[in-house]
Amino acid sequence: MESLLNRKGFTLIELLIALVIGSVLMAGMYRTLLSQQQTYTAGSQVANMHQNARIAVEKMTREIRMAGSGNVNHLLSLPGGVNGFRNVITPGNNSITIVGAFKQARRNNGGAISVTAAGKDPSTGKDTLVLNYATDDFDGAKHHFISIGGLQCNIVASRSVNTLLLDQPLAAGIVVGTPVFKAQAITYSLDLNHLALQRDENTGGGAPDLAENIEQLEFRYILKNETIPRFYNDPYLASHLADIRMILVRAVARTDGKDPHLSRVGDGYRRRELSSYVELRNL
Question: Does a structural domain hold residue 28?
Fold first, then answer.
């Protein structure tokens, strides 16, 4: 039987070589896994960025398209307009304010709130509307603008359960089942401090973020019989706001984090530009 002392093993040099080869292989595998993880993270951030920005821009363009809906011109002609805004469209720097009947009053179960009767209040002589369901959509000085059937607007002076006392005389033709809408002045703006697209209903509740990581927000205005888009601070635009017929909306979004693969060619952020021409249907 062969003696244990005569059995051959690995030398120290062989062990060191094996250790070095193993370390190189492990390092290569780690770098591959790290690169794949970074690629996956970057792809996930790009997908989230695009989805969040797209949803926010679609909501913004949808409401811009509805600017002037509900026949709000009567409200705009009154002192103070709609919460201080006297035009259907008010351009601003990285912002736009639009006035219209954007929200239909609905019950908690989603059913439409509509008119069941129209009459007069015996104590004040003012016109009243009776709704099929009570709603607080029109309570308070900042929320009291109503569009009836999208055809005529009024101001709700007060509410008692489901009966609205109106500040202005009603036009004829109100029938049972006519839906009611809340008229609003909505401002979309870019907060450059933390790069967020914000939506403000101008009722004192602040401007919550609609989408984060928005770097640029731009609006250009195309007038009727005018092919040249104009910026918010164009003096000609300021005197022709009623002639706006189309708006070019442009937004630039970026990822929440940096992509290490782009560190040598820029600041590391991936970006997407979203743009859309919005035709105004109610002007």
Answer: no
Decide if 242 contacts 76 (C-beta within 8 A). no
- Residue 32 is assigned to a structural domain of this protein: no
What type of residue is 14?
Answer: E
Return d(Cα 195, Cα 52) in angstroms, integer. Answer: 13
**Which 3 state secondary structure label does DSSP give 236?**
helix
In a domain, 45, yes or no: no
Domain count, the chain: 1
Helices of type H across the chain: 12-65, 73-77, 235-238
Which residues span the domain enclosing 154?
Answer: 51-279
280 CB-near residues (< 8 Å, 6+ apart): 64, 65, 67, 68, 89, 244, 245, 246, 247
DSSP 8-state class, residue 230? B
Residues 6+ apart with CB under 8 A from 258: 267, 268, 269
- Say what the pTM is: 0.85
CB 129, CB 137: distance < 8 Å: no
Cα Rg for the chain, rounded, in angstroms? Answer: 31
Q: What does the pLDDT look like over 111-148, one tens digit per residue?
A: 999 999 999 999 999 999 999 999 999 999 999 999 99
* Single-letter residue type at 105: A
For the residues of 50-118, what is the DSSP string, one character each? HHHHHHHHHHHHHHHHTTTTTTTHHHHHSTTTBTTB-SSEEEETTEEEEEEEEEE-B-TTSPBPBEEEE
